[in-house]
Amino acid sequence: MHFCSCALIALLLAVASADHHLHHNRGSEDHMSCHKLSAPNADFAFALYKRLNARTAAGNNIFFSPLGISTALSVLSTGAHSETHSQLFSSLGYSTLNQTQVNEAYQHLFHVLGQSQENQKLDVGNTIAVHSGFSPLEKFLNDVKQHYSGEVLQINFTNPAEAADKINRHIANKTQDKIKDMVNDVDPETMMMLINYVYFKGKQKPFIREWTHEDDFHVDGSTKAQVDMMMRMDYYHFYEDAVNHASIIVLPYNSNYDDCPS
Ligand SMILES: *[C@@H]1O[C@H](CO)[C@@H](O)[C@H](O)[C@H]1NC(C)=O
Ligand SMILES: *[C@@H]1O[C@H](CO)[C@@H](O)[C@H](O)[C@H]1NC(C)=O
Ligand SMILES: *[C@@H]1O[C@H](CO)[C@@H](O)[C@H](O)[C@H]1NC(C)=O
Q: Are strands 150-155 and 120-131 parallel, antiparallel or unpaired?
């Protein structure tokens, strides 16, 4: 059911664009900043989706966070130079931008995402686990802290079990204990590990209980199951992409995001 990941992409982009309506009082320079990323990040998301889809058996689900991957690669690019840097930038679709512009755009994006909404909590950020005794350039660490909602964690990777435990506890802390055993096999030669996390808890608009009824859920082409179907009548932003055989729907949470980007 590839539909799911499309909806996810739409939701992430919707979140990224929603500030448009929330910060009318900000300066126009600042206001534009995170929008620089919208088009390249959307293109990257679909290009990556196509690659993943090509390697996934028919009928299997694909679930990924394109924004998380763009962010992690952008963090990496702040520490990269020359050929490596230009390859990262061209893959991300940032060739017309420079690192300063990208950093500032992400800083703005994290600022927007950090504004808590009523009935929902979104926590996104990055952590760099650095091997104790290894000192990356101070500028790199500072850029990640300043622009990518970043944190630096000292880890002694020589002891893999202890390192994994410390990293897992950190991730559990950032995800309200939802993700507890992310890593188990840490390479003792590791110098740095980049961790990107997203925690989201939102309240959907309520459904009318009386409208719930049993109906067929088509698990695949030949299997169906009777399940309770919730129903709601409303207007939704919906897009059908015939070329990519995809349908995209924006399902807003119970927040200000009703006013979706067009
Ligand atoms: C990045 O691009 C902006 C806008 O074109 C420019 O003002 C700035 O000097 C550039 N920064 C670097 C480090 O090249
Ligand atoms: C890391 O752990 C190893 C093994 O426990 C120890 O020998 C080493 O001194 C530690 N390194 C640092 C920088 O603490
Ligand atoms: C995460 O760590 C912070 C700081 O140590 C602590 O205040 C908070 O309660 C922790 N959260 C969870 C879910 O463990």
A: parallel
Q: Output Rg (C-alpha) for the chain, integer angstroms.
A: 20
Residue that the structure tokens 């009824």 belong to? 213
68 and 195 Cβ atoms separated by less than 8 Å: no
- Token digits of residue 61: 């689900």
- Contact, 150 vs 128, CB < 8 A? yes
Quick: pLDDT tens for 58-103: 878 899 999 999 999 999 999 999 999 999 999 999 999 999 999 9
DSSP 96-118: TS-HHHHHHHHHHHHHHHHS-BT
Please, which residues bridge with residue 218 across strands? 224
How far is it, in rounded angstroms, from Cα 258 to Cα 251?
9
Q: Where are the domains of the chain?
A: 1-115+232-262
158 lines ligand 2 (CB under 6 A): yes
Nearest CA to ligand 1 atom 9: 100
Q: What is the pLDDT of residue 33?
A: 72
Say if ligand 1 is within 6 A of residue 32 CB.
Answer: no
- Of 142, 197, 143, nearest to 168 by C-alpha is 197
Q: Of the bound ligands, which one is closest to the alpha carbon of residue 96?
A: 1
Q: Is the CB of 101 under 6 A from ligand 1?
A: yes
Classify residue 32 as left (phi > 0), alpha (psi -120 to 50) or beta. Answer: alpha
Question: For ligand 3, is residue 178 a contact (CB within 6 Å)?
Answer: no
pTM: predicted TM-score of the whole model, two decimal places: 0.77
Atom of ligand 1 nearest to the CA of 101: 1
